[in-house]
Write a structure and sequence with these properties.
alpha/beta; Hyaluronan synthase; two-stranded antiparallel ribbon; transferase; transmembrane helix; single chain; cell membrane; glycosyltransferase; eight-stranded mixed beta sheet
């Protein structure tokens, strides 16, 4: 069996030390912007850009808030008049399974929750799939059921890829551990159909969605279940880290590019209990949320076309409608990132188009008084200001003669911001990354910021305009990343 890496979330005292710099910097920056606005409003300055600068600063609300995130722990169980149901789960006075529907179950209550892990497979590297399944079997908190669905995998010449050896190995090892397994092969219809092929009628309490190119940390399931001690929590996002982090220049860059979302925006949203997109790489759901979406989730359409992307954000949307959605930074999963630029480009287009469609859903269906609606508005306002402010500077004669100075100052701010965001790199420790590698990544943070500004931002604008192209998955026609080359 492959040797699996380990990862862990940093200790609270270390997070406090790391967070002092960005929180202090943002406080000072905010005060400076506010003073500038007050001076302009009082006529003490002839500048006209102070208000847009302040608004731009406020739209980065999530950067300091992310530092307040902490892993959710399991409280002591609350005593209640409880019996047991037919499956041996504790019930409250009304006869409901309080581990799922109410109460505060504590660690013992979480232990009796039945857990199904669903893994959709399509043209996956056999070694990566074997490592994925192995990581599920060796969890410190055992799962009850593993359900693999091969969505019509095929070799480059069109012949079926059946993974017979991997399947036989899983069946044998799972039987020894008392874990139920199923392995189905279906015609290729997409990830959503592969998931609901088995989850629509599965009777587990918690569903775990796991990508086949990902490897769980040994405590990922145990940590991912902890937030469900709060009955309001409907879904939990695991924290994603790059497995093949040192394969080439692209995977090193992706390490940094993942940070603003996986350890930035998502962490800040979790503090508010309103995570909008769980990563499909690893996510936990109350099963009734997923079962309740069966028949609708698989057949989502946009502008008359079947939606084949952003399955993770749609499941999160259902969870948002039912209650709280959070991120558990101590539930860690390693994933294989694209190692070729063509693969990376197709992945980004898929993510960006799908996110644009989901933004439209949030604006239409989320409450006007809710956080999700207004943070979506804020994101679009940030895009507009990012285009409008440079144009205003060029158009205004008072600034036109000083564009070089303004550009230099903007570059300095951008470099500082990139390093403040890159500090989040050190919130996770891992056995497969040496300190020297982490420090080199941190030093390269401005390059990731430059790539984001020069390439990803224009690409996002193009994806927004072409967001109707949602009917193709667009990432994998054959095995594109293998475990051996990581």
């Amino acid at each position: 069996m492959p040797d699996l890496p380990r990862a862990w979330h940093a200790r609270p005292w270390f997070l406090v030390l790391l967070g002092v710099v960005p929180l202090t910097g943002f406080a000072a920056w905010g005060i400076a912007h506010t003073v500038a606005v007050l001076r302009d409003l009082g006529g003490a300055s002839g500048g006209f850009m102070s208000v847009p600068w302040l608004v731009s600063f406020l739209l980065l609300w999530w950067v300091p808030l992310a530092w307040l995130e902490r892993p959710r722990t399991t409280p002591a169980a609350v005593p209640a008049d409880r019996g047991t149901d037919a499956r041996g789960r504790g019930t409250d006075a009304a006869g409901r399974a309080s581990d799922v529907a109410g109460g505060t179950p504590g660690a013992a209550g979480l232990d009796v929750l039945s857990v199904t892990v669903q893994i959709p497979v399509y043209n996956e590297d056999p070694a990566a799939l074997r490592a994925c399944l192995h990581s599920v079997l060796v969890q410190s908190r055992p799962v009850d059921r593993i359900r693999v669905v091969d969505d019509g995998s095929h070799a480059p010449d069109g012949t079926p890829m059946t993974y017979d050896d991997v399947r036989a190995e899983l069946t044998e090892r799972a039987a020894v551990r008392g874990v139920e397994t199923t392995w189905d092969r279906t015609p290729n219809r997409g990830k959503r159909h592969a998931q609901m092929h088995v989850l629509a009628h599965d009777d587990a309490d918690i569903f775990v969605t796991l990508d086949s190119d990902s490897v769980l940390d040994a405590d990922a399931v145990a940590e991912g279940l902890r937030p469900f001690a709060d009955p309001a929590v409907q879904s939990v996002a695991g924290q994603v880290i790059v497995l093949n982090h040192d394969a080439n220049v692209l995977t090193r860059l992706i390490n940094l590019l993942y940070l603003p979302f996986t350890r930035g925006l998502r962490s800040a949203q979790s503090v508010l209990g309103r995570v909008t997109i769980n990563s499909g790489t690893l996510a936990f759901y109350r099963a009734e949320v997923v079962r309740g979406a069966a028949g609708v989730y698989e057949h989502e359409r946009f502008r008359g076309r079947p939606m084949q992307m952003n399955d993770d954000s749609m499941l999160t949307f259902y969870a948002l409608c039912a209650g709280d959605t959070v991120h558990q930074p101590s539930s860690l999963v390693f994933t294989l990132a694209p190692q070729r630029w063509s693969h990376y480009l197709r992945q980004q287009m898929r993510w960006m188009r799908g996110t644009t469609v989901r933004h439209l859903w949030w604006l239409r269906y989320m409450p006007l008084t809710g956080i999700v609606f207004w943070t979506t508005v804020a994101e679009y306002l940030h895009i507009v200001l990012g285009l409008a402010i440079p144009l205003a500077l060029v158009a205004n004669p008072d600034y036109r003669d000083h564009l070089r100075t303004v550009a230099a100052l903007g570059a300095c701010v951008g470099v500082a911001m990139s390093y403040l965001m890159a500090l989040r790199l050190f919130t996770v420790g891992r056995t497969d990354m040496r300190t020297r590698q982490a420090l080199l990544l941190f030093a390269a943070a401005p390059l990731a910021a430059l790539w984001r500004a020069v390439f990803l931002r224009p690409l996002y604008l193009y994806a927004m305009v072409t967001c109707h192209r949602v009917s193709r998955w667009g990432t994998r026609d054959n095995v594109e990343v293998d475990l051996a080359t990581r």
